[in-house]
Every structure is written in C-alpha cells, then in structure tokens.
Amino acid sequence: MKDQFGREIEYARISVTDRCNLRCRYCMPECGVKKIPHAEILTLEEVLHVAEIFSRLGIRKIRLTGGEPLLRKNLSTLVRELKNLSGIEQVTLTTNGVLLKNFAPELIAAGLDGVNLSLDTLDENIFADLTRRKLFGKVLEGLQTLDKNLSVKINCVPLRGVNDGEILRLAALAEKNFIKVRFIELMPIGCAWESGLRGIPAAEIFSKLEKTFGRLVPVREKNSLQGPAKYFQPKNFVGQIGFIDALEHKFCGSCNRVRLTAEGFLKTCLSFDAGLDVKKLLRAGVGDEELSEKISDAIYHKPREHFFDGDKKFRDKRQMYQVGG
Fold first, then answer.
1. CATH class of domain segment(s) 11-323
2. Domain extent listing, the chain
3. Is a pLDDT exceeding 80 seen at residue 223?
4. 57 contacts 299 by C-beta, under 8 angstroms
5. Can you give the pLDDT at residue 35?
6. How crowded is the C-beta side of 207, counted as CA atoms within 13 Å?
7. Buried b / exposed e across 124-136, counting CB within 10 Å, b at 16+?
C-alpha cells in the first residue's frame, strides 16, 4: 500500500489503552489525566477487525502500544489472533515493563515477536524521580523474564540535566546482551516541553559513546519493517546501539507507518491531526469494502512530512500517551 508520495506503508502502531501505571514527567502530569470512558475505547474485537483490513491493504507489522498496553485485559489473546492474520509478519509490544514479569510467558506463548522496553535510567532514584513511581525493581524483573530468542529493544529518551549520566550505563547493556539500546529524541509534544524538559542532540550522545566504546560501526538493516532507527555496533559488542532523531535528522521521506489511537482514530502522521475516525465508521455499521476504501484513501493522503518545527497551530493537540508513541 503506497501513499501519494510513493512510500510503502506497511507498519501500524495500535494503541489499546490510554491508561498507564507510571507518570513519566515527559509524558503525563503528576495528577494524571482524564481517562477516556471505556465505551469510547475500541474493543479488542474492533481492533482485530481493523487489523484484518490493514493486513489486506499491505500492513505487515503491528506494534501494540498504550498508555501501558499490559493494563489491557486479554492482550495475549489479541496477540495470538493478530499473529493468525494472513500477511502479518510481526507483532510486537512497547511497554514500560512494570507488569512484564506477570505477562511475558503468555505473550511469548501467543507468538509475540518482540518487546520495546521504555527505560531511561538504571538508577532507581532517577527512575522514581522521572516516573513518579518506585517501581524500578519490577521493571528489571520484567526485563530478565524475556525469552532469549525474542527481539528486545530498550528505548531511552535522554534529558538534559536528568539522565545524562545514564547514557553510557544503558548503552553498555548491549555489550554482552543481544539487545538494541536506542536513544530517542525528545518530541515537542505535551507536557515535556511545557515543564521545561529538554533533550540531548544525537550527535552529542554519539560522540560520548565513541569516546568510551570506540568507533560505532554502522549496521545495515535488511528488514524494512524495523522502522526509522539507525543502528551501530562498537567493536566487541554483541548487541547494537540505535538513534531515532525525527527532528534533528528528519526521516519523513522513508516513513512507513500509521497509528491507530485507543479511541479508534487513524493518525497518518504524528505531527498532524490528519486521518480518519475509524471507530465512527465501525459503529455505524459500514461494510468492510467501504471501510477498506476509506482507510486506503486516508493513508494515500498521508502528509509529506511532520511540521514540529513550524507553526504550533498546525499540530495535533493529542498528548503522546493518547497516540501510542
């Protein structure tokens, strides 16, 4: 499935809940947020219905996100059903890891292909300050339960004056473990920038890593489903280090993804509110052929590029936890 600019759209991020058991300073206010009424969230049957149409249109990878997706009941059942869809090659999960120890075995048994674990520090005090919760031990336990054959990625958002000192420690996790540690640029969405948090440029992190671990050798990604990260591997590392910097190095020209929010809105670009209210169509009883046509048309008109560095009036007003990252 191609958009109007010839990009092959084959990756969908599906948010299954807006709720979370952490209150990360760059994502949510301390008091929490107004929860979307349960009736307004897509049912798992509706999620599967849309995913089946996605698969017919050429989507090959689905990532389940939140909020915190492990708060959604019967998630392993959804994973199993998604894996059974013709054309879906990968089903993965992004999680904060707090509940991972409880659910990892059943998710792996259901066929989950990979886990992205959001982890910005290996210091329990910094973790508590960043997330406003003392649950660091739970996250480590969750990480340790992951199957050795599972694709595991650790996502870190470097923040100036907050977790600067954790960058080398986190990167070192990839030295003896077959994991990918990725450093993700802070996006100008929601309470992060409003609260004064600022990111650290990828070039600065890259230089810091090379001074400690030696030359970062580029790794060629053979699988187009891997997303926008650029990976590197220092000598003697078994794992890899990745960078995702959508602002510093705009990669919109190769964007291959769309997002489905927990309340059923198909977002074709993280920056804009462009897209389609899929839930409205589903609950109006629209047939699969018409729904497929409308989804295909929305994806075809996916914006050329994000506009985070432009006029704020053009930005989507949704917070990051509302769009699934």
1. alpha beta
2. 11-323
3. no
4. yes
5. 84
6. 5
7. eebbeebbbbebb
